[in-house]
Design goal:
The structure holds 2 protein chains of 2 kinds.
Chain A (H helix, E strand, L loop, with lengths): L2 H7 L1 H18 L1 H4 L31 H37 L1 H16 L2 H11 L4 H10 L3 H14 L3 H8 L4 H37 L11 H10 L5 H29 L7
Helix pairs in contact in A: 2-4, 2-12, 4-5, 4-7, 4-8, 4-10, 8-10, 9-10, 10-11, 10-12, 11-12
Chain B lengths: L1 H36 L9 H5 L5 H11 L5 H13 L14 H36 L4 H15 L2 H15 L18 H38 L3 H8 L4 H23 L1 H15 L4 H10 L3 H29 L1 H5 L1
Helix pairs in contact in B: 1-13, 5-6, 5-8, 6-8, 7-8, 7-11, 8-10, 9-10, 10-13, 11-12, 11-13, 12-13
The chains are: A mainly alpha, B mainly alpha.
């Protein structure tokens, strides 16, 4: 059965996929579909509850919450993909080296993975952000640099399994170089669990970014991100529920979408891991 | 009697092997932490501290002296490590200028208490959910708990905290939304004090447990599904044991084992998560201390927290391993 046919059959994955596609559409079309300029301050309409003009209300500077959420989706998309991209690249390189060469290289690299896993990742991220400046680029880099260990372990396990296969031995016997064996012959067959982990990783990266931005050490205002919009929600908790409810729902739906898609992809791409 | 002594011996051998294995990990942790502080452009006393009005020339001088910044990097690491072994992380940049380790020590009990309480809650709630879903696979309850698991994974903890504060604190006035104690705490009776603390801890513990609930119940469910397919369960059934006995005595014990390992793995997440909910609920624990340190760029404090956080994780993993060895007789042989 074709990949897309299977995806269409798996209802949860399909739902996740639809959410993700909608998110992409919203962030690409932000300039067209956003009803207001997200940065326009309007002192006459401060903290207005949801109404026909402002479906999700306005914030403490009179800016339209819906428009800021639409533009904020771009931040989530960027952070999610760049951070996971970094994590996947590092994880694949380290996992492939460990799994392919084995021996002391494997030992050394896996001990390094163990060490990295000892750090509460939120602590590590905060420490680095405190030393560098909080900005969207640093956040993407730090989330990526602290999130590659799972991918490395997955890739290593796949490499350990595949390198013993006959076709790999055949490739080696006809004199293929290590690089060629790793990238042409083994890696393409080891990618399925990585794709699943990356999809779930996007969800994790979005959650981390929003938490950092909420704490004021992530994406800095006035750039709208769902996390820093919730900071305004907390500051106006007593009077403006809409500032807290809608951006949080956006995070929830987005993360749920990526998780469902990831779980669905796992069922399709990695039948061995399929849940009984 | 002899059997017990042999067991004790293997246990001690196992423990010492684990402890020795921790040493390279500890060294690696300090090395990574040391590199983090040197990520700063120039040196730790450079750009960032120059721009920070909280860091006076005198403090900068102290920092230079503490890190020995005029020496080669490897010597600096050696000097720093020598201090860290004795838990000397230097003095905080904060106006009080107290030793970092003292500041951390007084915060650890609060964070550990909250995390232990939420772990207990997670186990008490998620294990029954997992078992019931596994033994009633495909039932309405199973579907509902699957839905709950997916939502649990996706809800940002800080948002949940925010919503709960709005609902129970601001609108219903049922629970306090910040701190550990009320203003009137010193004047309360013992019972009143206990009740006051409970009310303050209720939301933080519930919310820090929420994320874990989803993961653990999912995990327990798949463990249980794996175990009840095994031959020994079929044997137990064939012997004519009651279904209750099969599930809760034979299957449960075996499905529980992997949970212990996962408990160990979840410790860094819990410690890291404490930054978020302690900041939101203004609870004076490690997380809040760390957050304040980050905001004030209190480097000695940040470094101390980083090392202590990793060491706590390592200890947690060790405890999990030991419990595993105690619970599973097969481990001790290998």
């Amino acid at each position: 059965m074709g990949f897309f046919k299977q995806l269409l059959r798996n209802k949860l994955a399909l739902m996740g996929g639809i959410v993700v596609v909608i998110l992409f559409a919203v962030s690409f079309l932000a300039p067209i579909i956003s009803p207001y300029n997200p940065d326009t301050i309007n002192v006459k309409e401060i903290l207005m509850p949801p109404s026909r003009q402002h479906p999700f209300g306005t914030d403490e500077l009179g800016r339209d919450v819906l428009s800021r959420m639409i533009w904020g989706s771009r931040i989530s998309l960027k952070v999610g993909f760049v951070a996971v991209g970094i994590a996947v690249i590092i994880g694949v390189i380290i996992g492939a080296a460990a799994g392919y060469y084995g021996g002391w290289i494997d030992d050394l690299l896996m001990r390094f993975v163990d060490m990295m896993l000892c750090f509460p990742s939120f602590f590590l991220i905060l420490a680095v952000i405190a030393i560098l400046e909080p900005s969207i680029y640093n956040i993407m880099a730090v989330i990526g640099l602290t999130g590659w260990m799972g991918v490395a372990r997955l890739v290593r396990a796949e490499f350990l399994r595949i390198r013993e296969m006959d076709y790999v031995k055949a490739a080696r016997s006809i004199g293929a170089s290590d690089l060629r064996i790793v990238f042409r012959h083994i890696l393409p067959n080891a990618l399925n669990p990585v794709i699943v982990a990356a999809t779930l990783g996007v969800a994790g990266a979005i959650l981390t970014e929003s938490a950092l931005s909420f704490l004021g050490i992530g994406v800095q205002p006035p750039t709208p991100s769902w996390g820093n919009m919730l900071t305004a929600g907390k500051n106006n908790m007593e009077i403006a529920w809409w500032l807290s409810v809608f951006p949080g729902l956006a995070i929830l739906v987005t993360v749920l979408g990526y998780n469902l898609l990831g779980e669905g992809l796992r069922d399709i791409l990695d039948p061995r891991l399929k849940e009984r | 009697m002899d059997g017990n002594r042999a067991k004790l011996h293997t246990m001690i051998a196992y423990l010492s092997k684990r402890l020795v294995g921790m040493i390279p990990l500890l060294l690696g942790i300090t090395l990574i932490s040391f590199m983090v502080i040197h990520l700063a452009p120039g040196e730790p006393t450079g750009l960032a501290t120059d721009l920070n009005p909280k860091i006076t020339a005198e403090v900068r001088q102290r920092l230079r002296a503490y890190y020995g910044l005029d020496k080669p990097l490897i010597v600096q690491y050696g000097l720093w490590l020598k201090r860290v072994v004795f838990l000397n992380f230097g003095n905080s940049f904060a106006p009080d200028g107290r030793p970092v380790i003292d500041k951390i020590k007084e915060r650890i009990p609060i964070t550990v208490t909250i995390n232990v309480l939420s772990l207990i809650l997670i186990i008490l709630v998620s294990l029954p959910i997992g078992i019931y879903s596994a033994t009633h696979k495909g039932s309405l309850f199973d579907h509902a708990s699957t839905l709950f698991v997916f939502i649990g994974f996706a809800v940002p903890t800080f948002w949940l905290a925010l919503l709960c504060m709005m609902l129970f604190g601001v609108h219903l006035h049922w629970l306090p939304i910040s701190g550990l104690r009320s203003m009137s705490y010193p004047h309360l009776s013992a019972m009143g004090k206990f009740w006051d603390l409970t009310k303050h801890l209720l939301l933080p513990v519930l919310i820090s447990a929420f994320g874990g609930l989803a993961g653990f119940s999912r995990y327990m469910r798949s463990n249980m599904l794996e175990v009840i397919r095994q031959d020994y369960i079929t044997t137990a059934r064939a012997k004519g044991l009651s279904e209750w006995r099969v599930i809760y005595v034979h299957a449960f014990r075996n499905a529980l084992l992997p949970i212990i390992t996962i408990l160990g793995f979840s410790i860094p997440g819990l410690i890291g998560g404490s930054v978020i909910f302690e900041t939101i609920f203004a609870i004076p624990g490690m997380g809040q201390l760390f957050y304040n340190g980050v905001m004030a760029r209190d480097y000695p404090l940040i470094m101390g927290m980083l090392v202590i956080g990793a060491v706590l994780t390592l200890l947690g993993n060790l405890i999990a391993d030991i419990s595993y060895a105690l619970a599973d007789p097969r481990i001790r042989v290998s």
